[in-house]
Amino acid sequence: MTEPLVEVAALSKHFPLGGKNFFGRRHGAVLRAVDEVSLRIMPGETLGLVGESGCGKSTLGRLLLRLIEPTDGNLIFNGAEITRLKGAALREVRRSMQIVFQDPYGALNPRMAVEDIIAEPLIIHGARQGPGTRKQVASMLDRVGLPARALDRFPHEFSGGQRQRIGIARALILSPRFVVCDEAVSALDVSVQAQIVNLLQDLQREMGLTYLFIAHDLSVVRHISDRVAVMYLGKVVEVAQKHAIYAAPLHPYTQALIAAVPASHPADRSRGKRVRIAGDIPSAFNPPSGCRFHTRCPYVMPVCREVVPPLVEPVPGHHVACHLIDASPAGAPT
Amino acid sequence: MSELAAEDFAPQRVHPARATLKRLFHHRLFVTGLALFGVIAIIAALAPWITDVDPNRLSMRNKFLSPNGDWVFGTDNFGRSLWSRTVWGAQLSMIIGASVVALNAVFGTLIGAAAGYFRRLDNMLMRVNDALMAFPAILLAIAVTSVLGPSTLNVILALGIVYIPRTARIVRSSVIVLREMEYVQAAVAAGAGHWRILRHHILPNAMAPMIVQLSFLFAYAVLSEATLSFLGVGAVPPTPTWGNIMAEGRDYMRDAPWIITIPGIALMITVMGLNLLGDGLRDVLDPRLRIQQ
Amino acid sequence: MSLLEVRGLTTGFMTGSGEITAIEDVSFSLNAGEILGIVGESGSGKSVTALSIMGLLPSPPARLISGEVIFEGQTLTNMSDRQMQTIRGPGISMIFQEPMTSLNPVFSIGEQIMETIRAHERLSPAKLRERAIEMLDKVGIPSAARRMDDYPHQMSGGQRQRVMIAMALACRPRLLIADEPTTALDVTIQAQILDLLMDLRDEFGMAIIIITHNMGVIAETADRVLVMYAGRVIEEAPVATVFDRPLHPYTRGLLECVPSLTEDRARLVAIPGTLPEPTRRPPGCRFSVRCSHAIPACSAALPPLELLEPDHSAACIRALDLAPIRTADLAP
Fold first, then answer.
1. Is C273 within 8 Å of B10 when comparing Cβ atoms?
2. Which residue ranges make up each domain of chain C?
3. Nearest-5° angle of CA A109, CA A115, CA A120?
4. Å between C278 CA and nearest CA of chain B
5. Hey, of A92, A111, A200, which one would you mutate to test binding to chain B, going by the most B CBs within 10 A of its CB?
6. CATH superfamily, domain at C4-39+52-229
7. Global pTM?
8. pLDDT tens for residues A179-208?
């Protein structure tokens, strides 16, 4: 059996709120942005990560890349523990993992030419600036669908979709194995979004990339992912193959999320037909006890308020954290 | 990638710095300010060639002459040429202003960038900063010059100490914003070290608000220097500074009003020019205002 | 007579390099109780259309170049600002994308709703409060009376959007313009807000214009659809027609480029290229440079919006050559 490329075990990130008091001591509550999350990402696959705002999906993505330090838990990349790596060893690992950001405007330094932006990772890892790197950057630009003329231009001369291509070129110039796409197509116009999704898929095939594709758009995630993980308030509540999760979601939250996606044809209007979950997402700053979804769950039971449901595997490959589901197969709510 | 076939870039082929310069020179306030300040700066630079009388040469025969054909700006109570004194005073003002700006550019940036970028240093540096900023600027400057003794160099040091915390705070606040930009995150993800991130990603983008601040600072420095001299804690008389000339002219305001008026007007032109220049820079360089236009 | 008639609306903006037109020759009509969806991507002019109807564009730099807006028989485009104020609120109301910045943080939500009512109606303080509570209740704010004194920052994004809707409805408008009302919201909250808008339409019988970039929102809500591209209307039809038989290649592209929630597709059908900036629009049909069916004639002249089939207009000279044959035509 193949080893996972990325594996996280009980990974947590808590942000202290309220800051320090006068004597430098912490006070106030903590925001549990990511709370004891365990996941595996296999080489060459795309794991989609969905959830609503504040669920911690972006924080999780950055934790995997060591862009922020975990509070607790372990992070294994390519078989090696990297949770506490520092200095040169960490820099070496960074070669193999990269990120593509959401905002095509904030992700590129406005004062650097495209060539310098894309060449920067090469320079950091010891390349000399010169005709060699320029050639390499030009060929990367070509792979993301931009002409070599773009080399000497500045970010403001490009449209959102073109900037996103530049951001992808920067992420891939070191030939990484693992790329986190953090809402990489969310800010783009739909007609351009499809181009970037296609580009990401082409590059994955050509370069053998593994993706963590973070997004809130469920149809885009379904299209691009092999497996999908759903997060709610810092917890992963369900992980499964995409067909399993979209066709037969087990967790009531996943069901509600899918039911809320607007229809693709006026004949399938959802109003009055699909179950809506009431209420708003509670604050992650003071999350509900027990199962965090219990405040909005249509099937809530007394135990849900008390006990945090563990992530179990009722169907092989389908993990879910809900008290309605027994670890033994069968017994899904409908 | 055929999907891109129809796509092209914006027609603009200009380097961003050149585009900024072009916008600046189309900005009416900036050009007016630059002209006013430029006149004073040029006069100051040409001081040795456009004055023929030593600014400190006494001539009791010629005292209290009002402006006339021989003495363009008239003479003061010791018969010194006010033209010479004002022009050399302009030079001193420019030297002091430029030195204070240079001190701020170096130390304000260093302290501000360190505090903004390294969270650990932030608290310590900013509390010292706050303590210094709690004193009224001019009182602190007086205190420093009283301790160090009045001299041109000490005026520069005093004004440096007074204004560096303010500059540092402005640099720090832009650095804090820039530190969270995604391109900085991307550089971290690529393995960049702190020095590279500061030098390539943070400082170049923090320059705009800093340049605006420094142009205003130049005006404050010139004004504060005049105030210190006027109060007798600046450059020692008879050094020709605008503050000194005005202090001496104060006693003869009724009979020889030109003594105090002429350096006053020079001071006003300088400060106004710098403020207009700063406003222009802010309009062009500060993106928040640019969007509103 | 229709509730709203927009005829040949053309709005320009003064920029550093001369005047550009944000929208050109936009015409449509809307009946009472009808929901019109205006769909388009960035730069399509959909928001400018809404703001032009409301007379809310800052002038300068904006300017109405030509066209007229007729609401209940009154020509809004001739009105003074003071006259327009009597229309905004009880006549036409608007909600925006960003519920955070649309509410004033220093007043409680109750005060803000009452202020809106007070601007148009004379009511006793008790009646005023009663009406505000009723509005909050209508938009689904739980325990409305208690939440009257809450401030915007105490509410979630979805609740703030509900408050915005309550404010917009406080004067019982005949037309509500909703500019990307759910774009900033999460999908479960979006579903709630769209349901709410439909419920309110059924209850009050007001007409709604929903402006969005999301075809799903259109599918969920609209009766009729206006598709805009680069400042012009390129297709108009009832909602089912647009989804079943889009005539303009751009509309077809918009429908095809979003992935499906139920079907697998190996590759998305992308529209090549980028949306043109207003200063760099191509000659002739503005979509021609991105259109895979373009022929030389497409870039020769702007295609007019023409009625090509009953109740279905499109601005494409090849629309009928390219459209699939209607099943109705095949029937004997």
1. no
2. 4-39+52-229, 232-330
3. 65
4. 11
5. A111
6. P-loop containing nucleotide triphosphate hydrolases (3.40.50.300)
7. 0.86
8. 999 999 988 888 899 999 999 999 999 999
